[in-house]
Amino acid sequence: MTYSLANILTLSRIAAIPAVSVLLYVQGPVGAWSAWAVYAIACATDWLDGYVARNWGQDSEFGKFLDPIADKLLVAAVLLLLVAQNRIDGWAVISALVILCREIMVSGLREFLAKTAISVPVSRLAKWKTGIQMVALGVCIVGPFGPWGMPWVLIGEIGLGIAALLTLVTGWDYLRSGLKHMTREEAAAPTPSKPVGSVG
C-alpha cells in the first residue's frame, strides 16, 4: 500500500503518542515544554493533513478512517497520563471523563452507521470543541511551568470544562442524528410473516 503525504501526516500523529508519553514523565520545565512541543506539532498535523487531502487531491477512504482514530488516540492518551500524574485533578477529572466517554460513544455510533452506508458529518461546533480541547490539553501539559506567572493549571482546567460542555452538546447531536437513522431503518425493514399454523 502506498501512503500519501496526508496519510503520513495522520500516522505521525499516532507516532507522536509514545514520544509525548515519555516526555511527560521527564521532571521539570524541560520535560513539560518538550512534551508540549511534540503535542503541538501533532495537533498541527490534524489541520495540515486535511488541508493536503483537500487541496492536493489526496482524499482517501483510508484517510477518512484513520484521521478521527488518530485524534481520539492522542487526546485519550494525553488525558489519561495527565490524570495519572495529577496534573489534572479535582473537578477537572470529571471533564476528562466526559470527553473520553463521548469519544467512545461517537466512535461506536460511527462504526454502526458505517455498516448502513450513512456518514455522520463533523459539525462546526464539534470543530470548535476539538480546537478548545487541544489548546486546553496543551496548557495542562505545560502546567505550572507556563510563562508570565499566570495560573496556567486553572486556565487549562477551565478550558477542559468548556470543552466538556461542548462535548455533551455535540455528543447529544450525534446521538440524536444516529438514533434518527436507526429508527428510520427499523421502520423501513419488512415485518417477517408468521408461518402458517403458528400461534401468537
UniProtKB/TrEMBL annotation:
Transmembrane as a keyword?
A: yes
Where found in the cell?
Answer: Membrane
* Claim: Lipid biosynthesis is one of the keywords in the record: yes
Source superkingdom: Bacteria
> What keywords are annotated for this sequence in UniProt?
Lipid biosynthesis, Lipid metabolism, Membrane, Phospholipid biosynthesis, Phospholipid metabolism, Transferase, Transmembrane, Transmembrane helix
Pfam families listed in its UniProt record: CDP-OH_P_transf (PF01066)
Q: Which reaction does it catalyse?
A: a CDP-1,2-diacyl-sn-glycerol + sn-glycerol 3-phosphate = a 1,2-diacyl-sn-glycero-3-phospho-(1'-sn-glycero-3'-phosphate) + CMP + H(+)
If you read the UniProt record, what top EC class would you report for this enzyme, in one word? transferase
Q: What is its main location?
A: membrane
| Pathway(s) of this molecule | Phospholipid metabolism; phosphatidylglycerol biosynthesis; phosphatidylglycerol from CDP-diacylglycerol: step 1/2; Lipid metabolism
Q: What is its EC number?
A: 2.7.8.5
Q: How does this protein lie in the membrane?
A: Multi-pass membrane protein
Gene Ontology molecular function, alphabetical: CDP-diacylglycerol-glycerol-3-phosphate 3-phosphatidyltransferase activity
Q: Where are the transmembrane segments?
A: 7-27, 130-146, 152-175
Instruction: Describe the family membership recorded for this protein in Swiss-Prot or TrEMBL.
Output: Belongs to the CDP-alcohol phosphatidyltransferase class-I family.
What is the designated name of this protein?
Answer: CDP-diacylglycerol--glycerol-3-phosphate 3-phosphatidyltransferase
Organism of origin is Lacibacterium aquatile
Q: What is the lineage of its organism?
A: Bacteria, Pseudomonadati, Pseudomonadota, Alphaproteobacteria, Rhodospirillales
The gene for this chain is pgsA
